[in-house]
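Quick one: structure for this chain?
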Amino acid sequence: MLSFNDFGESYSGLSGKSAEDFGEGSPYITYMNVYQNQIIDITDIGLVKINKTEQQSLVQYGDILFTLSSETPEEVGMGAVYLGETYPLYLNSFCFGIHITDESKIFPPFLAYYVSSESFRKAVFPLAQGSTRFNLQKGDFLKKVFPFPAIEQQRKIYSILKTYSDKLNIEKQMIKLLCCQKQYLLRQLFI
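Got it. Here's what it folds into:
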C-alpha cells in the first residue's frame, strides 16, 4: 500500500494566465488531453506564452497528470502519464501533476493503466467535493493509500496492457481504412 506522496512530488498547472496568453508560444498539455487519454497525446497540445520571469512548473517524462476540477464528480481525478520528450512543456491550470521521485516503488508507465482502473476510480470518486463544480481535494488524494503491486509486476502488467492497447489502435485504424474503402466502392456503384 502506497500513497502518491510516497513516491512523488505534486505540482500545479499554469497560473496567472489570461485568454490573451493562449494560441502561441510554448506547448502545454490541455485538460482534454489528460481527460481523454491514458498516455498523453503529444500531437494534441496547446500553446501558451510564458514570460522569462514567470515561475511555472514543467512536465517531465514519467509524470502522472490528473484533472483537478470538473462539472461532474466522475470526471475529477482522471489521469494520464506523460511519456514524451517535448521540453519545455507545461500543464493546464485545471490539472495537477506528480513528478515520480522514487522509481524503485513505481514504474511510471504502469500508472497510465492503473489510474484508469475501476477500483482506482471508485477510490477517487469520494474525494470530489462541490455542488455545481466539483474539485479534487488534492491533499487528501496525495495521502490516500492505494494497493500497488511490486515493481516487477507493474512492469509485466504494463507490458501486457500496452500490447493490447497497441493492437486495439491498429484495429481502429483498419476500421477507418475499411470504411473509406467501402465508401469508395459504394460511390463507384452509381457511376
